[in-house]
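Tutorial sheet, problem 5. The two components below are modelled jointly, 224 residues in total.
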Amino acid sequence: KQEVTQIPAALSVPEGENLVLNCSFTDSAIYNLQWFRQDPGKGLTSLLLIQSSQREQTSGRLNASLDKSSGRSTLYIAASQPGDSATYLCVKTSYDKVIFGPGTSLSVIP
Amino acid sequence: DAGVIQSPRHEVTEMGQEVTLRCKPISGHNSLFWYRQTMMRGLELLIYFNNNVPIDDSGMPEDRFSAKMPNASFSTLKIQPSEPRDSAVYFCASTSSGGAGELFFGEGSRLTVL
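Model answer (structure tokens):
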């Protein structure tokens, strides 16, 4: 069974901290790994996409890495801000499946 | 491009009524997905189209749900008859490259069935 898990399920940090969100998947067959952000009552906003041939992608304070051999991806957020508070979901795309992780709920305290 | 466009954004209806949700994917995208999101079950894939053809509808809950994609720029998700347990946010998403490209989501349609 293909599964995507995310740890931790919830995280609360003070403003300014650097933090890491983890995503693990059981099947190494992968096209890409995508990270999304979802604010309460809103849709999903794409943050970063890592193709299977890539190891990481960066956008501003965000850096996502992909290690296919270990079935892991991490999302690193530098100098966190209250506006980063949201749910973060990782999504694994393979040939015939798009599988979502359950998400990590992040709260950045001012 | 305006992104994935969904309508209506909000719908409140009574049990037994027919509900039709609409989606316009990003131009040039050849894969379209319908998802349902609830607090209890998170995001669930309902159906996936590639080049307007349904590829995987194993997530469609029951015969009350049906989805169509008559052309590359339009898809509908219909619930008939609707039930209170269908209350959820329904998302449409599209991507290119048969699903290997970046996935883009619409803002969702929030359905409440009374």
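Marking note: Chain B touches chain A through 19 residues (CB under 8 Å). Full credit if you identified this.
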